[in-house]
Design goal:
Elements lengths: L1 H19 L7 H7 L14 H16 L6 H25 L3 H23 L9 H28 L9 H21 L4 H19 L6 H35 L1
Helix pairs in contact: 1-3, 1-4, 3-6, 4-5, 5-6, 6-7, 6-8, 7-9, 8-9
């Protein structure tokens, strides 16, 4: 299993390069421009995949060196193997514009990555696992937690499931759902800064893109994204401080 996790971690940047170089079809940016939404982020925000792939590679290499893992790491390996595989699969099927399959795949990936981030962030006495576990997996999970809603919006627009002339009402519902997920996970992960960082980065990217958009309702969408970014950051600070106090009491008590 450890070598499978390593191989899948190293495969993601390769698949990402093939996808965004046009080898598999239209790039993600081209597809996004075909189906504009009020919740898509600016192009620069997707550069976060670089650090995510790099740190996932670090995780893959580090875990491969652990020959006698405990039960927690064994569960993390299973979840990350599935999560990494689904991440690569999503890049392929999204490029092929199989949007419904891509939507199912990215939600499956999120479930696995959140589970792995949870296990990596919680050990005995509320301590986090080694940084090479909780940092990469938290960053990846944080970005995908927002990306799933971007993907939902593009499916709505691509198939015209709801009004594409008046996108703001249903986009606000997506923002509300995204906010609930992000804030709940930040609290459960005790203010995990890397999960929050990825989420805030994505929301600021949405703010920047919608500020420059001429779609009806874009200004409101930009403001909502900015408010959510501030809420996530503040929640992470408060939850992190509370978690630090709990760990301190356990160490001194």
């Amino acid at each position: 299993m450890r070598y499978l996790v390593l191989a899948l971690a190293l495969a993601m940047p390769l698949v990402g390069w093939l996808s965004n170089s046009g080898w598999l079809g239209p790039t993600n940016g081209e597809i996004s421009n075909r189906y504009p939404t009020l919740i898509v982020a600016a192009g620069y925000a997707f550069a976060i995949w670089g650090p995510i792939f790099l740190l996932d590679g670090v995780f893959g290499i580090a875990q491969a060196g652990v020959r006698a893992p405990d039960a927690r790491l064994r569960r993390i390996r299973v979840l990350t193997a599935i999560g990494f595989a689904l991440t690569s699969l999503w890049m392929v099927v999204f490029t092929l514009q199989w949007f419904w399959l891509a939507l199912a795949v990215i939600w499956g990936s999120l479930a696995c990555l959140l589970g792995a981030a949870w296990l990596a962030s919680h050990t005995s006495q509320h301590r986090r696992g080694p940084w090479w576990q909780w940092l990469p997996l938290s960053l990846h999970a944080g970005w995908v937690s927002l990306a799933v809603f971007l993907n939902v919006a593009q499916v709505v627009v691509a198939f015209e499931l709801l009004s594409i002339e008046r996108m703001l009402p249903w986009t606000l519902v997506l923002f509300a759902l995204a906010g609930l997920l992000l804030l709940a996970v930040v609290v459960k992960l005790r203010g995990n800064p890397w999960y929050a960082l990825a989420a805030v980065w994505g929301l600021l990217g949405v703010h920047a893109r919608q500020q420059a958009s001429d779609l009806p309702g874009a200004d409101m969408a930009a403001n909502v994204a900015l408010v959510l970014a501030v809420l996530v950051a503040l929640t992470a600070l408060v939850a992190g401080a509370m978690g630090w106090r709990e760990r301190r009491k356990l160490r001194t008590g």
